[in-house]
Amino acid sequence: MGFDYDKYIRAGKLPHIWCPGCGHGIVMKGLIRAIDALSLDKDQTAIVSGIGCASRLPGYLDFCTLHTTHGRAVGFATGIKMAKPEMNVICVGGDGDGVAIGGNHFIHACRRNIDMTYLIMNNNIYGMTGGQFSPTTPFGAKASTTPYGNPDPPFDIAKLAIGAGATFVARGTAYHAAQIDKLLTEAMRHKGFSVVEILDSCPTTYGRRNKFKSVIEMMNDLKDSAVPVAAAEKMSPEQLEGKVLIGVLYKETKPEYIDGYRKLVASVQESC
Amino acid sequence: MSKKVAFLQGNEACAQGALYAGCRFFAGYPITPSTEIAEVMAKELPKIGGAFIQMEDEIAAMAAVIGASLTGTKSLTATSGPGFSLKQENIGYACITEVPCVIINVMRGGPSTGMPTGPSQSDVMQAKWGTHGDHPAICLVPASVQELFTETVRAFNLSEKYRTPVTVMPDEIIGHMRERIVFPEPGELEVITRTAPSVSPRDYKPYDTSFGDIPPLAAFGSSYRFHVTGLNKAQDGFPTTRAELVQAEGERQLRKIENAIDDIVTYEDYLLDDAEVVVIAFGSIARSARYAVNEARKQGIKVGLFRIITYWPFPERQIRSLAGRVKAIIVPEMNLGMTIHEVRKCAEGKVPVTGIFRVDGEPIAPNEIFARIQEVR
Predict the structure, then answer these.
(1) Is A66's CB within 8 Å of B228's CB?
(2) Residue B208: pLDDT band by 50, 70, 90 thresholds?
(3) How far does CA A150 lie from the centroid of its chain?
(4) For A41, which residue in chain B has the nearest alpha carbon?
(5) Looking at the 3D structure of chain A, how many domains does it have?
(6) Which of A31, A45, B142, B300 fits as disulfide partner to A88, beta carbons 3.0 to 4.6 Å?
């Protein structure tokens, strides 16, 4: 018997809104397997998102789910976690939501190291609004608002997270489906702010503008450009040119925010 | 037993009122002239096991407040004009999702950075129309340190009772002035907490109108799992574009406040029984107006004060009735004419309405109002 996804999917809420060939469904299944692997209590798990295609994910899942405003998921999630620290809090969203309009919230959540996991589905485009360039659209790529090629250099989300102080950062791709739940499981187990970036593809608004002939070609691109961290260690800089690393990119142990706040409360209460 | 009496700043009293009402979460961002509220909450909340967080910006602070409230925790934020503008996005979210929360906006000059340390009353329209779309608004405008305490308690009560964000808007003078305050004993003021669902988690819908226009709100992290979205939604909380459902939800959200106007709207009548002239004012300017009214009464002028305490919903019925029996209305306010439009709407041309407007950071003094009373009598 295969894995029972239905246990976690809200009855009557499928089909989802995602286009054929979109990787978001693959990522959602990975998230479900990770939640299952950790046996998270559904009542005690909040899944919070912003706005965009990826942010529609929580509506399909049977947890405490919060579909918020554009870019603000982490702010809402921080309120939930502060008020009810025993809850598991997972944020999900896309690249534009997370690091453009939500960029400020993102870096500060990394800095605080509050115990939650942020899953970013990075498809390099604003899909829901029809394919405008995002902060992760490659330089020179075509989008509806970069008809002559993207003049903006892109963010590396994982580097941004590490630089801002996230204590667990991993990257995967929608092609490497079996790895997604492993990365998410490890991220959710990690005490602190964990970021999992899953490189994804949008055939509808990105692929067709950038000479990808099919969904398969886009998937192959994810496959071919990804190099596991361990393999990369044995490769030369020339061999790594144009490649992206996948796997756990960064991990450290640092004091977690809620723990720190609890200690503060205990010491204040003791002294008053 | 003698009551606890203190000499407190308005903002400090506001924070104490929030704690009295059961507020256990505060998220904010530093901004003059409201910051003292955050400072008191940062100091007091840990003592009682609550949580305080200073967020990276005003938008995130509003987001955190809504998130915390969804766990069943009474939540507060405090800001001033520029921050109030930034918060509007998520205030709209709290409106459509019907998540109780309280926002304090200590009014300073504007627009933009304006006069950060100067008083103003120019955010009253923003309190109703600041966020896009149709939505209800409750906004309270206290006129003393004591009243800032009690109105903050009432803001939490209204917010919890009607499942809606409530704004308390002292002007900077009320926020920063120091006065004697008598602390109510625990239990002396009513404290309302939102209604929990009576149905099983299986049957729960977050916008179930079989319980009336104010459906019970479950808490995240209890045994109820549900979906919350800023999209137009059906009674089950999930997005819908079905015209009749969207229309019904939109109308219900306005109706739940409109039908409760008698419970929400508060005001003070002062010497109005025989008044031929009425001054309509609120906040610190109502204090100047009271002084002017008293002076004019000494000279035999039949003048009274109608003090607005609940700004939104606007006390339309009361002002319409006044307009039918007085000879003139004077509206002094620290803006260039906002309340006067609402008053004129209520007066329906039956009586002349004149305004005294200042935006120079100076309060409107009693003698300015007194002079106008003499002019219009």
Answers:
(1) yes
(2) very high
(3) 23
(4) B221
(5) 1
(6) A45
pLDDT in tens, B12-54: 999 999 999 999 999 999 999 999 999 999 999 999 999 999 9
Residues of B in contact with A86 (CB under 8 A): 221
How many angstroms away from the CA of A74 is the closest CA of chain B? Answer: 8
- Residue A1 reports pLDDT greater than 70: no
Please give the domain boundaries of chain B with CATH numbers for all domains.
5-182 (3.40.50.970), 201-262 (no CATH), 267-376 (3.40.50.920)
Closest in B93, B220, B228 to A87, CB measured? B220
**Mean pLDDT calculated for residue range A171-175:** 98
Does A166 fall in a domain?
Answer: yes
Contact A86 B55 (CB under 8 A): no
Give the pLDDT of residue B1: 57
Among the partner residues A75, A84, A108, nearest to B220 by beta-carbon distance: A84
Contact: A67, B231; criterion CB under 8 Å: yes
* Closest chain B CA to residue A109: B56
Residue A231 forms part of a structural domain:
yes
Q: How many residues belong to chain A? A: 272
Q: What is the pLDDT of residue A26?
A: 98
* Chain B residues 65-124 with a CB less than 8 Å from chain A: 65-71, 73, 75, 89-90, 93
pTM over 0.80: yes
Which of A14, A92, A104, A265 to probe by mutation at the B interface, max B CB count within 10 Å? A265
Q: Over range A166-172, report the average pLDDT.
A: 98
Assigned domain for A12 exists: no
ipTM computed for the complex: 0.97
Domain membership flag for residue A117: yes
Residue in A with minimal Cα distance to B64: A79
Mean pLDDT to the nearest integer, A233-246: 96
User: CA B88 from chain center: how many Å?
Assistant: 14
